[in-house]
């Protein structure tokens, strides 16, 4: 692509070079010491690589870190909205139909005493949990209705450019959207063959596994940054049968 003299970058460069030339010319005319002027020019040129190092590497890195933190903050706001509108209810439904939930249920009762090491250990244990879900025709119908009602919300989330920075959460949204499409394409769940139910169960298990991982990461984020939001999330824990939003 050819540079155009009309771009503001080129115009700014010309103005800065002209200004520097004018300063050195004025110095030469007023002080009448060309040797000193030449020395100053060479000294400035010698320091130029250090300026470039400071600006491009150090300062730019600091600005990149700040921008990344701001993007992460916006991303977690989106993730929080997802769990408020869809995720927590969906996680409650899926965990209620997990026949092996008692094996890991106590590990998922998050408290304010949890440390990063506990969160990491729970993630490791969850890798061995199959996240299987036992559903029948009525369950599939209920799940289809729940997801269809939130289809527009899913689409708006997928259009959010902030999510491009979070691959695992984007994978979750794609999995949820795919499951919604699969369920919508079936008119009657009561007559589905076992092979098709097994196929749908696989799609549901994929969503369940990704959802649990994202929920755990979001709980850790809230505990670290927003204690008051974490308090409500604990009192709404879909894995805690004694959880209640009412503060006792």
Automatic annotation (TrEMBL):
Keywords: Membrane, Transmembrane, Transmembrane helix. The chain crosses the membrane at residues 12-31, 37-63, 75-94. This is Uncharacterized protein. It comes from Methanoculleus marisnigri.
């Amino acid at each position: 692509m050819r540079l155009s003299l009309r771009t503001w970058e080129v115009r700014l460069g010309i103005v800065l070079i002209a200004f520097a030339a004018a300063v050195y010319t004025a110095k030469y005319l007023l002080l009448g010491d060309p040797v000193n002027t030449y020395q100053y020019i060479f000294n400035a040129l010698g320091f130029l690589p250090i300026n470039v190092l400071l600006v491009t590497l150090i300062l730019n890195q600091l600005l990149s870190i700040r921008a990344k933190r701001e993007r992460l903050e916006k991303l977690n706001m989106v993730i929080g909205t997802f769990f408020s509108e869809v995720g927590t209810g969906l996680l409650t439904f899926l965990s209620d139909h997990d026949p092996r939930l008692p094996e890991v249920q106590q590990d998922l009762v998050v408290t304010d005493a949890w440390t990063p090491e506990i969160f990491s250990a729970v993630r490791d244990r969850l890798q061995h949990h199959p996240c299987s879900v036992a559903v029948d025709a009525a369950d599939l119908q209920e799940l289809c209705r729940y997801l269809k009602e939130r289809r527009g919300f899913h689409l708006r989330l997928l259009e959010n450019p902030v999510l491009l920075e979070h691959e695992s959460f984007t994978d979750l949204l794609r999995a949820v959207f795919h499951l919604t499409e699969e369920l919508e394409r079936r008119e009657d769940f009561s007559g589905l063959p076992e092979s098709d139910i097994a196929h749908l169960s696989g799609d549901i298990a994929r969503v369940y596994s990704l959802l649990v991982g994202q929920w755990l990461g979001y709980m850790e984020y809230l505990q670290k940054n927003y204690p008051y939001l974490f308090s409500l999330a604990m009192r709404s824990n879909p894995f805690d049968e004694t959880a209640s939003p009412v503060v006792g």
